[in-house]
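User: I'm new to structure prediction. If I give you an amino acid sequence, what do you actually give back? Let's try with this one:
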Amino acid sequence: MMKILDRYLAFGFLRSFLLTGSAVALLVALVTTLNDYGLVVRAGEGIGAAFSLAVLAVPREMLQILPMVVDLAAIALFLMLSRHGETIAAEAGGLSPLRGLAGPAAAMLAAGFAVLLLLDPIAAASSRARESLIARYSGAGASVFQVGPGGIWLREGSTIGPRVIHARAASADGRTLRAVSIFVFDRQGRPIRRIEARRARLQPGRWVVEQGTSWLVSARDAAATAVAFDRVDLPSDLAPETVTRGLDDPATVSLWRMPETLARLEAAGLSTTRLELQLHKRLALPLLAVAVLLAAAAFTMQPTRFGHAGLRILMALISGFFLFFLDVFARILGENGQIPPPLAAWAPALGGLLLTSGLILWLEDRR
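Assistant: Good question. You get back a string of structure tokens that encode the predicted 3D arrangement of the chain. For your 367 residues, that looks like this:
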């Protein structure tokens, strides 16, 4: 009997979760389409291009707001059960609230891992595609970052022509490159100049290249054009903060590639804090979703005879938002180095599970 009830509640929650998730995904796509419409219109495209661009943003946005989707799905499920009197029947059968939540919690845990396995790689690929399209529609040359076994590769599109930069290592913030090779191309994509330097520092509007040699690749005798220098300034359209964001942007790295990317960042001397935090947050996401489910259930699984349905819905929403923003706050502390990344990722999930379980027991004891 208990197994049948567990399956019934688990499938009921999955159905509510899928319906709520589909509705929220459609809403996110429509809102993002309106936000992107001005950009694509300036590029001479229509509403179809704006919607395509918005669809690419949906997987990433759904991963970020997954706890709130769980909150809404749980509220919808338990209100339906209360309205149909099924919670009263379960209570009369001696089923405790925590035991009755075993099915939905197990279903949420399984769904959370399925999201990580399936949606996370899709979100990473769609984020990369979206960034490329935005760069094309905005008319700015795309700046592409890649950290490989041989070091860091950066392709910078600028108004004076594309530029490819290779560096063996970098500072933790990614703005100072060491053992640098710079290849400068004209607007037709033909190589015109090569620079080998000890160091390159990105400052607003320019690269400051120090202690190197420059020569013209296009010359018939390139070696004869070699010139040593102590410092050369190269104009750049690249904002300094873009380097830090681009070299280890967690949104463009799938869960499967994170360990390899972390190893490459460490070998290049770059900071791995953001990516390490994202790895732990992804792994902790199913537990956080279960905590949000329990928080919503604590207020909405009570029979309707207790009244105050509106207040209970409001409290369920507030509790879900509290756990969501607690997770966001911990992420900010982790990114700023105030607390270790594993603690920033797992503390909200584990703490939320303990708090919500205690809340359910306390509310049951008050009846």
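You can read the tokens as a compact description of the fold. Here is one thing that stands out. Residues 258 and 282 are 11 Å apart (CA to CA).
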